[in-house]
# Entry
Amino acid sequence: MARPQTDLDSGRDAILELMVELIEERGSSAFTMTELAGRAGMSTANLYRYFESKEALIEAVAGYWFRPKIEIMEEVIASDLNPRRKMYEFYARRFARMKSEWDRDPVAFASYVELGNEHFELVRSYVDLGDHYLSVIIGEAMAEGHFAGLTIDEALSLINQMTSVYVNIGVMGLIMPKLNTDKLARIIDAVFDGLSAQDRGAKAVSGLRAA
Amino acid sequence: MARPQTDLDSGRDAILELMVELIEERGSSAFTMTELAGRAGMSTANLYRYFESKEALIEAVAGYWFRPKIEIMEEVIASDLNPRRKMYEFYARRFARMKSEWDRDPVAFASYVELGNEHFELVRSYVDLGDHYLSVIIGEAMAEGHFAGLTIDEALSLINQMTSVYVNIGVMGLIMPKLNTDKLARIIDAVFDGLSAQDRGAKAVSGLRAA
Amino acid sequence: MARPQTDLDSGRDAILELMVELIEERGSSAFTMTELAGRAGMSTANLYRYFESKEALIEAVAGYWFRPKIEIMEEVIASDLNPRRKMYEFYARRFARMKSEWDRDPVAFASYVELGNEHFELVRSYVDLGDHYLSVIIGEAMAEGHFAGLTIDEALSLINQMTSVYVNIGVMGLIMPKLNTDKLARIIDAVFDGLSAQDRGAKAVSGLRAA
Amino acid sequence: MARPQTDLDSGRDAILELMVELIEERGSSAFTMTELAGRAGMSTANLYRYFESKEALIEAVAGYWFRPKIEIMEEVIASDLNPRRKMYEFYARRFARMKSEWDRDPVAFASYVELGNEHFELVRSYVDLGDHYLSVIIGEAMAEGHFAGLTIDEALSLINQMTSVYVNIGVMGLIMPKLNTDKLARIIDAVFDGLSAQDRGAKAVSGLRAA
DNA sequence: GATGAATGAGGCTTCATTCAT
DNA sequence: CATGAATGAAGCCTCATTCAT
# Structure
């Protein structure tokens, strides 16, 4: 986070930035290693000192894009909010971040979506990590008596479906204007109040709702 | 128009469908003639009996996508609605069609946007045709005294700008949820009531407005 | 020589003529089976009923071009001229034929040269046949005491070298204007009078010389 | 100008030589990038480091062939001969060069003709340059009172026609033996003495004529 | 007989990648 | 460290050729 620690690292970062420029300008599929090397003022061969393959480069771009979202997830997980609030923040903070990116430049955002479509493996590991953290939250919620009668995996699957539009960038980019944290709060409330079959009652965290 | 007349035609249609699948699945830039030939169960060489080049194939896909929109324009032009209503329908019906496509599969829709971005020439002739038909409507409106003091080209340019988001798929895909026919009706009213400087008055076609 | 005897034969001849047109128009390397089939108003597949391969077709063209020259050789061989005259006619009549072709259309002539360069095997068998007939004449000449002290092969080789420009179309096309039968006659005289070492004397066939 | 300055340049030269060999051996139409790469002992991909396309390679060959002729033109233009002599040398020196090439290997010469036929654009710029220089000479001649009553373009066109066989390699190859500098001198004299209508007289540069 | 349909091989070209220096 | 040189694999496209009908 502070300064890059080696020359290789700083080189990598510089290249990454050029690469990000390129992708935001022209979409993810229209660049060649030769062109990137040209912009970076080095030979292609040298480029390979920094990234061992084009795939690695694209992975790095994905990493660059996902990193802040992962940091958010980790912060939220480490916080001592109650489970309901934690789950809300788990989605809301990432959504806020992505919405601001989309606001800044929807076309560039679309380029990342394109990149995600073309390299689905890269997205998968992020999704898996998200599932992992969400499971942790679900576990904490269960410890407090929520989701009675469901296994963790069942809850995970249901929640994933209910919140999908706030996470899936492929769709999110296209319906961004319809999304907001108020709706998200209602969804999370529904998750907590609606998914625990044994435990109906009027205990919505009213504080979450904007209304 | 109905049945394909030769084997070449029907083969073309079959290939087109596979091509559409491919594009909707994976975006327009990620396909090769070799892969399409593979899916079609034929050699690349044979593929070239049906489409003389990759470009021709992509053109055919564009045609496939634009055809229903063009038919809509022609129906509206041929109808005997009054100019204001005609202009409204000119946009509204195409918008409805595109919205339903987007609702069905926003990602596939995005693939067509991508294809349009990569082959702008193909879009241009559609745009030109739209301009032509719009000019016809403008002409009819002028015959009834609208747009006084403007040339057809001036009116065309202004109207194009005011309605752009209901026509330009590049942008439309990104803000679809914000678009609806009610807003469109207000825009068309504004066009008719606001662009004719000499002719102010209270004659909005209230029927157009949902309110 | 008279009428073609089967439909296949007559078809072959028709195709050959179209092919000759094509070659004379555009050089030997710039034609495709598809194009020839198109000109002939038939499918490529059908073309293969007449000629089993492109190579066979080209061979046929070569045959078409060489046939009259071969007929000339056979007539001369069958004639009862004396050896010296026979050898002269052996070259002179073929030269006259080629010169008239060159006069008619030097560019078309060049196309055949090109064809010969690209398919040297075809030329070789003609050359071999020429060698065979020339050997016959040499044999007859030897029977009359010429070329004493030389084997047939030695004489053949020497004579080939001395007469090369009157036979080798690759070069002939380029120096045609310098060639004539008068010079040829002198060469043949030199062959007969100069190659028979033991047999010097003043017996030039003066009738051969234009002077 | 003397030594190649980079490896790419020297590589280009080496490849050019192999290419020239290939063309002189087998004509211009019978070579493939693959074969040339094979002869050069490299991959086709590497060949493209030296020449960016087959067309560029052929252009280079054309340049290689035309360069000495262009140098001759420039020398003659720069010389301080009188216009009549200058025009004579303008043709005669190039003709001498081409004749010596033809003498060395008429078949190779024919290959260049073939190449010129197949890539006429390459010939055109040479022809245009020749027209330019000839115009300069015509201008100088006019300054001395020649070609009275003619525009430069009229004179250019007439002279081009009269001298065509000493310049047009397509025809030259076929009638080379008939061409010589003596005839050329007569033609140039005719140009100077015959094209200036107002200015008849007996001032042929007799020195030009062999007689 | 004749055809439309189909293909394999090969040509030009690009690009990610490697390696000796 | 950094580079120029080199390559294999793949992409688009053409063409001679075959085969079922």
